[in-house]
Amino acid sequence: MGWGNIFILNLYSTIILLILGFHVQKNGERKAFQDKLFLVILYFTVFMLCIDTLSRFDGMAFAFFPAVNAIGNFTIFLLVPVIPSLWLAYVHFQTFRKERKTKNFLRFLGFLNLVYIVFFLVSQHFDLLYSINENNIYQRAPLYFVPVLFTILLLLWAMVIPIRHRERMVRKEFFSIIFFAIPPVIGIILQIMFYGTSLILSGVVLSLLIIFFNIQTHGMHTDYLTGVSNRKMLDAYLKEKINQCNEQNIFAAILLDINDFKHINDTYGHSVGDNALENAAELLRQSLRIGDFVARFGGDEFCIITDISEDMDLDITVHRIYKNLNKFNASNSHPYKLSFSMGYAAYDYHLQMSAEEFLKQIDALMYEDKSIHKRNFCFSKNRR
Question: Is pLDDT at 378 greater than 80 in this prediction?
Fold first, then answer.
């Protein structure tokens, strides 16, 4: 693969990534942590594509080409673990939806990258990774495989995390994240087998395209704080379920809110309040089956839609939520206790209610439950 072909391939890849970046910045939620991470990966890949182009002046031993070739190869080897490390952090956030937890993980990855940089500088001092001879020709050295192996291990780690926590992820997101590593790994293998090819970063571009269409666009319908679907997605999903509903295809919905959420905000501050919302969303995800739908209805309210037609099965789901709620409160890992009020019902196909009417029905049931909660709270307070 000649320099001209590499230049054209990298140029096309750069243009694609810049278009994606523009689209994310224009239409995405730029404050969302996952969007920030995605944009960092995207723009750093653009930078590496430019450096890769500079590192391909092999055999051009006149003018400034040797210096450009040397700088390009040095930078490529120096920064080789950055993209897989950023990707690993992105996967970590997509899996756990905990910004603080992912930022701590990023610091650990930064430490690993620092260790690699020290290894690289020491090894390259003795030309153990690669060398460039007097004719400006790049040659592999005995430890060439180490950066490649480190990159592959980081990508494999990014596959292990979602596999171990499969239940936390949406099916479409799960398979897109697992697939991400395949194109760049194929590029690594081909680049090792066929000297002079430049396919690793092109593989990364293909993976980023898949992530953009399957996850980042999905993020436009996701509540960026809690990671569950947003109100816009809920409205569309509920209308679709009603349109598909018949006597054999019944669904149910649960509407709930966090009791005394204002007290949590006023007592501990809005950052702790946000944490309470995140934990509530995570608790609901853990309580539901694969295929169940959960969305943030607004404020401290959440809505669950599940393919349940029997009242007994719906009661079992509600009981599971309360069981996990009690387990969360018993852990004493947070300064607050969570409490839910819930309204729930199976959709009655014969009544032909609209989405708005059905939501009003379960909203009224939820406020009945909230009234009971308030009466019980006042009763227990007066007994003291």
Answer: no
